[in-house]
Amino acid sequence: MSDVPSQRAPNMSPAEIIALGLLVPLMAILLYAGWHTFWFLTDDAYIAFRYVSNSQMGHGYVWNPAPFRPVEGYTSFLWVALLDWVWSNLGISPPDAANGISLGFAALTLVIGACAVLQITWTDRLRPYRVVFVGLVMFATISNRTFLAWTSSGLETAMFNFLFTAWLLLCLSIHGANQTRRMTCLSALASLAALTRPDGLPIALATALLIGATSLYRAPASISILKRLTPLMPLLAVPAHLLWRKNFYGEWLPNSYYAKVASQAFGWEFGWRYLLSFVMEYALWLWLIAALAAAVHTLRRAPQTPRRFARKPDAHGIAAGVGIGCVLFQVSYYVIRVGGDHFEFRIFSYLILLAFISYTGFLNRVFRKPGPAILAFLFFIAVSWVIPWTHWAAARSINLPTRVRISVADALGKSAGWTPSPLKSYAKLFDELQGTLIDHGICIRHEEHVQFSEAQRRWWPTREEGMRIGGEGYPILVEDCVGYPGWALPRINIIDSLGLNDYVVARSAPEKKVRFMAHDRVAPQRYLKCFSPNVEFNKAAGTAEFLRGKIDPRDWKVRVAPRDKELTAAKICECERDFALMRGLTPPLAR
Questions:
Q1: Contact 230, 212 (CB under 8 A)
Q2: CA–CA separation, 535 and 546 (whole Å)
Q3: CA pair distance 316, 219, nearest whole angstrom
Q4: What is the DSSP letter of 69?
Q5: SS3 state of residue 479
Q6: To the nearest 5 percent, what fractions of the chain are helix, strand and coil?
Q7: What angle do CA 351, 357, 363 make, to 5 degrees?
Q8: Concatenated DSSP letters for 545-572?
Q9: Which of 186, 293, 125, 263 lies closest to 583 in space, CA to CA?
Q10: Please, what's the b/e burial string for 383-416 (b: 16 or more CB within 10 A of its CB; e: otherwise)?
Q11: For the chain, which terminal residue's Cβ has fewer other Cβ atoms within 10 angstroms, N or C?
Q12: For residue 177, with 0-12 CB atoms within 10 Å meaning exposed, 13-18 middle and 19 or more buried, which class applies?
C-alpha cells in the first residue's frame, strides 16, 4: 500500500458508519458532563443581559435609558440580539437561555470538526483508521478544560468559536464544483462572525478581498458582473451594522474598546507571557514539533513532484492562505497589541479543536503505520492534561480569594512526589508566568470567575426583588463590578466607575499605579457627584429575610435615599456633556 495521500476521500464504509453511530452518543454524553461540570455565568455576561432587559422594557440596547447617553458596553451584537429574540419568542430569560445555546454551538463546533477530520486527504495506510482519529480529536477537545470552560459562561464565546471555525474550515475546502455556493456560505459565516464579535471584522474584510480576487477576476468573462458579486451580498450586513452603531451610539467601535484597549493596551510585555502560558499549559510545543516534522517530510518529497509547487495558486490555495492569515493576525493582535485577555485563554479557545485537527493532519503525513500515529496522538492528549487538570484539582480544594494564584509545581509535588525535576522546573516557569499575568488582571482563571459571580448573586438581590424598586426620580448607583447588579436592578441607573458602560470614564486616563486589565479606569469624583448618587448598598442585609417581611424596606441592602435637590433629565445631559468637553471629548449624543 502507498503512503502517498489519496487525492479523493472514498465514501464511508458500513463499518465506519456503525463506528460513528456509536461514537456520536458517547461524545455527546462526555460533552454534556464537561459542560455541566464547568457550568458558570461570568459576571460580565450579565452586562449583555442588562442590554437585553432594557430592550425588552422598550429602551433599546442601552445601559441606562434616556436621558443617559447610549453606550455600547457589550461587544456581542448578534449574541445580544439572539438572547433578545429567545426571550421575546420563547419566554426564556438570558440567564436561563445563554448556556444552553452555548452548549448547542459547542456541539456544532465538534460536528464540523469531525467532518474536517474525515475530509483530510488520508494516506492509504491510515485511511481505514480515520474514524479512530475522529474519536481521538473529539475526546482530546472535550477533555480540554479551556474548551469546556467556554461551552458555558453566558458570553458569546462558543457562538463566535463555531462561526470562526466553520469559516476557517470552509476556507480550507474551497475547491471543485459549487465554488460560488461555497463562497456565499463563506461570506455569510464571515458576516455572522463580524456581527458576533469585533474580532470578526478582519475576517469579513479578508473574505471580501478573497471573493473579489477569485470571483471577480478569475471568473469566466461570460458570467455577468452582478452574478460574480453575488457571494458578497451577505457581507452587506457588516457595514449596515457599523452605520447603525455610529448613528445610535456615535462611535464606530464598542465603548469597551476605549476602556480596555485604545489607550491602555498591555502589549507585547504581557502578550508573550499569555501566549507562552497557553502553549505550556496544553503542551502545544508537541504540535510545533509535529508541524516541523510534517514540513520536513513534505520538502523531502518536493523533488518528486516539482510541478505541484511551481503552478500558480488556485482558488483553494488563496482561500487557505487567507484563512491561516486571519488566524495569525488574530493571535498576533492580542499578543502584540492587546497583551492577552482578562479571561482564561478565552480568545484562544477556538484554537483547541483546530490544533488537534491539524495535528492529525501532521501525523497523517509523517507516519506510515497507524500504530505509531495513534500512540503519538494519545501521548499528546496525556501531556496536555498534566498542568490544566492539576491546576483545576488544586483550585477546587480551596476557597479562592481575589487574584488567586495556584502553584502547579507545589500541587504536583504534593500529589505526585515522584514528579521528575525537569517537569517541576517546567511547572515553576508556568507558575511564574501565570503569577505575573494574574497580578495584572490577565488570564484570570475559571474558578475565580465562578466564585466571584456566585458571591455577586449572594450579595445583591435577585432580579425579582430588584424589580420592586421603582425608577422614579432617576435613582443612581455608582458601582465598579456592574454585571450582576445591572441585571438584578433593572430600574436603577448605574454609573460604571470602570468605564465599560460609561462614555466619559472609558476615555479617562488610567490612574491606578498597578495596572489591571479592563479595570484601569478611575471615574472622576466630580463627575460622579454631579449625578447625585442616591442608591445605598449594604451587603450585610439578607434578601431572604426581606422576602419574608422581617426587614423593613428602608433597611434593605439596596435602598433609594431621598435627595436634597431634585435630579432632572436636563441635569443628567449637562453632566455628561460638560465632563466630556472638559476632557476634550466629543459631546455625547442627545437623546
A1: no
A2: 17
A3: 14
A4: P
A5: strand
A6: 65, 5, 35
A7: 130
A8: HHHTT-S-GGGSSEEEPPPSS---HHHH
A9: 263
A10: ebbbbbebbbebbeeeebeeebebbbbebbeeee
A11: N
A12: exposed
How far is residue 278 from each of residues 343, 347, 355, 459, 536, measured CA to CA in Å?
Answer: 12, 11, 12, 33, 42
> What is the residue type of 354?
L
Instruction: Tell me how long the chain is.
Output: 591
The answer to whether 348 and 278 have CB atoms below 8 angstroms apart is: yes
For residue 457, give the C-alpha cell.
448573586
Distance, in Å, from the CA atom of 505 to the CA atom of 502, rounded to the nearest integer, reads 6
Are 49 and 83 in contact by the 8 Å Cβ rule? The answer is: yes
> Do 440 and 517 form a contact (C-beta atoms < 8 A)?
yes
Spatial separation of the C-alpha atoms in residues 179 and 218, rounded to whole Å: 12
Range picked from 86-90, 294-298, 500-504, 530-534 for highest mean pLDDT? 86-90
Of 36, 2, 64, 6, which is closest to residue 567 (Cα–Cα)? 64
Query: Cα angle vertex 572, ends 566, 574, to 5°?
Result: 115
Structure confidence by residue, pLDDT tens digits, 335-350: 998 889 999 899 999 9
**Helix extents (H) in 302-420:** 306-310, 315-332, 351-366, 370-396, 408-415
| Cα–Cα distance measured from residue 195 to residue 167, given in angstroms and rounded to the nearest whole number | 14
- Identity of residue 204: A
**Longest C-alpha distance within the chain, in Å?**
89
Residue range 276-316, pLDDT digits in tens: 999 999 999 999 999 999 999 888 876 555 554 445 556 66
Interatomic CA distance for residues 461 and 484, integer angstroms: 9
Phi, psi of 536 (to 5 degrees): -100, 145
Q: Residues with Cβ < 8 Å from 185, sequence gap 6 or more?
A: 170
Strands 535-537 and 558-560 come out as antiparallel
What single-letter DSSP state applies at residue 143? T
What's the CA dihedral at 513, 519, 524, 528 to 10 degrees?
-150
Q: Which residues pair with 476 in a beta bridge?
A: 493
* Beta-carbon count within 10 A of 585 CB: 17
Give the CA count within 13 Å in the CB-facing half-sphere of 468: 12
Closest to 572 (Cα-Cα) out of 33, 227, 67:
67
